[in-house]
Specification:
There is one protein chain. The longest helix is centred in the first third of the chain and has 32 residues. With 162 residues, the protein is mainly α. 60% of the residues lie in helices and 0% in strands.
Length: 162
């Protein structure tokens, strides 16, 4: 499909095709997450000279660093907690939101945390935990993730049951 052929579509047809493509994209993303979870479980990236799934996603699959991080975090959550898949599938949560809460999601807080983020955009979900560190280098002022920061390890635990 070219821009020229899109320009010839009626408004209704263009919007209908767009909705269809978005639905396919969502299904494809879910399939990618399931595949990443299995590649991670088998550690297949090691056979191809990558030391981590992250390096494989960036180096072999061509994802940006942030896209790789969100997908890996989500894939690992799906593998550990199948209800995360159902929330993504039903679109009650998005990939960014799961990527945001993945580092603080535990067996003990998963029910409360997943309930708290349901139907909220990532920005609103982030506001639920004021102790959550910034994620991007621009937010941290450094080249490393805030999750690697020694400060984050010393932060108090957040009670998500309140």
């Amino acid at each position: 499909m070219t821009r020229r052929s899109l320009a010839r579509l009626s408004d209704a047809k263009l919007l209908s095709e767009l909705r269809s493509l978005v639905n396919k994209e969502k299904q494809t993303t879910l399939a990618v997450l399931l595949h990443l979870a299995e590649v991670d479980r088998r550690e297949l990236y090691l056979e191809y000279g990558f030391s981590s799934l992250y390096d494989y996603c960036v180096g072999a699959l061509g994802y940006s660093r942030s896209a790789a991080g969100r997908r890996i975090a989500s894939a690992r959550c799906i593998r550990r907690w199948p209800e995360v898949y159902r929330l993504l599938e039903s679109r009650e949560v998005g990939l960014s939101t799961i990527g945001l809460v993945a580092p603080i999601l535990t067996d003990a807080n998963k029910d409360a945390l997943l309930d708290a983020i349901r139907n909220k955009p990532a920005v609103r979900s982030r506001q639920l935990w004021p102790g959550t560190p910034p994620r991007s280098p621009s937010e941290t002022g450094s080249n490393r993730s805030a999750w690697q920061s020694p400060i984050w390890g010393k932060m108090p635990k957040i009670d998500v049951t309140r």
